[in-house]
Write a structure and sequence with these properties.
This protein is an alpha/beta fold and 471 residues long. Helix content is 34%, strand content 16%. Helix 14 links the parallel strand 14 and strand 15. Helix 2 crosses helix 12, helix 3 packs across helix 7 and helix 4 crosses helix 12.
Length: 471
């Protein structure tokens, strides 16, 4: 995950006087909204992945038939640690392709550096697992795309975010209700102050601060763009075309069309599934907080400090299982990255809905007996407890190896771009089991970090792992 070195992104959490402030900054009286963050295009907070979604089972060690299965679920387990995965794309991709592999129970341990990313994980998963009778597949996929990658939302989508955020805000402080309604989610590892801060994030999403000025996304986006481009702002269309063709197309993302990339760079709307006038409600899930100096004192500031360089097209929009989507005519792609993304997300949610259907049929004894009597080979376990997403405390990567419960536990470690090598040094020998691969994020972003190379080396008892050079 990209972040500006030498900076800390203030995790936003507490509330004071109706204002949305960082949980560690609650002593400060004022909260200001600011557009300016890092001068770099990636900013200091990452909201979407800069690499295609992966099936983690395809990268993990194979199931050992002689290994002792989990005594509770009677299935082998796959424990994965993800550092900075940001948007849950790898988790959803893994679940959607679980039927292609021997049955396993998944334990995803997710570690982020800000609570807004944790909240977006929870929102996206609750949307992906929404009951199909309440929300159809097309509506679910369109809502997913808008919440995930658009700076502005349609009013119905914004209403869904408010309702879901209000529900999650009430569940986070009550562990028993949370486990009952969201059995796939575990917040037990989070600190109490982090849970309080997470609740405040959801309350802000739910409309805790009224009015468009609470988070004026259009103004923040434009000011962020001005800050990034500087004197090139008046020629921003030419700059966006240059960035697209010379940076993204040259790295294999030719399906990203000029018009869709230019629209996103201008407005923050990547997936325009309806008339452009329908998108006018700020997407509050893209808000984050940090400490800034203001008139001689430190204040908590809310703003947009995310990516304005690459866009949310890479995660689902440049690869496809259906090769016809990548077909070209006269040297030009037939489908745009937005169309490919919509197709891939729809198919992904169609597969993930198996967990939702299992949840709905769990109360029907006849349906449950029918599912248990004739299981298909390779299909995942027919319960929503087939996987659990465990959220770890913020910035705990450097101390994770001190806890015995994590020593040698993980079969796979995913590391996002920008993760510092010193963070990995204690994790590699202690938290990874024998023959456990380390999976780096190879990004299509526009940062100079991409000049760093990847090399394979062998470490004792680890087998082949990946090492990031130059960071």
């Amino acid at each position: 995950m990209w972040r500006q070195r030498g900076e800390k992104c203030g995790a936003v959490g507490g509330e004071r006087g109706g204002q949305y402030v960082g949980f560690s900054e609650c002593l400060f009286r004022r909260v200001m909204t600011t557009p300016a963050g890092s001068g770099r295009g990636f900013g200091s907070v990452s909201w979407w992945g800069l690499s295609p979604a992966l099936d983690l089972q395809a990268e993990s060690p194979p199931v050992d038939p002689d290994s002792q299965a989990d005594t509770v679920h009677s299935t082998p387990e796959l424990d994965v640690l993800l550092l900075g995965s940001v948007d849950g794309r790898h988790l959803l991709r893994t679940l959607s392709r679980a039927k292609l592999w021997p049955r396993r129970r998944f334990n995803f341990f997710v570690l982020e550096n800000n609570l807004e990313a944790v909240a977006r994980h929870m929102l996206i998963f609750s949307l992906a697992l929404e009951d199909p009778e309440k929300m159809g597949l097309q509506e679910r996929s369109e809502t997913f795309l808008e919440v995930w990658g658009n700076a502005l939302l349609r009013p119905p989508v914004a209403a869904f975010v408010r309702a879901q955020a209000d529900l999650l805000a009430h569940l986070v402080p009550e562990p028993d209700r949370l486990e009952e309604q969201l059995p796939w989610l575990s917040l037990r590892a989070l600190k109490f102050r982090e849970r309080d801060a997470l609740e405040a994030v959801f309350r802000f999403w739910a409309g805790g601060e009224k009015g468009p000025e609470a988070f004026p996304m259009s103004r923040l986006w434009d000011s962020r763009l001005r800050h990034y481009l500087g004197s090139r702002y008046d020629a921003r269309h030419g700059v966006s075309d240059w960035d697209l063709r010379m940076k993204l197309h040259d790295r294999g993302a030719q399906v990203i069309h000029t018009q869709e990339f230019r629209r996103w760079r201008d407005t923050g709307v990547a997936f325009e599934l309806r008339d452009s006038s329908a998108y006018h409600v700020p997407n509050r899930t893209l808000a984050s907080g940090r400490l800034l100096s203001y008139r001689g004192e430190r204040v908590a500031a809310r703003g947009y400090w995310g990516d304005i360089a690459t866009g949310p097209f890479v995660a689902f929009g440049i690869e496809a299982d259906d090769e016809s989507l990548l077909r070209t005519s006269n040297g030009q792609p037939v489908k745009t990255a937005g169309e490919i993304t919509q197709h891939n997300v729809t198919e992904l949610l169609r597969e993930v809905a198996a967990w939702g259907r299992a949840r709905a049929s769990r109360g029907d004894p006849e349906e449950q007996q029918r599912s248990e009597a004739s299981p298909e080979p390779g299909t995942p376990a027919p319960t929503p407890e087939s996987f659990t997403v465990h959220f770890l405390p913020l910035n705990s990567a450097e101390t994770l190896h001190h806890k015995s419960c994590y020593n040698g536990r993980f079969q796979l470690l995913y590391v996002a771009c920008g993760t510092q090598t010193p963070v990995l040094q204690p994790l590699l020998p202690q938290c990874l089991g024998s023959q456990s691969p380390l999976l780096p994020q190879l990004s299509l972003g526009l940062s100079s970090v991409l000049t760093a190379g990847w090399s394979i080396f062998s470490a004792p008892s680890l087998g082949p792992v990946w090492h990031l050079e130059g960071t």
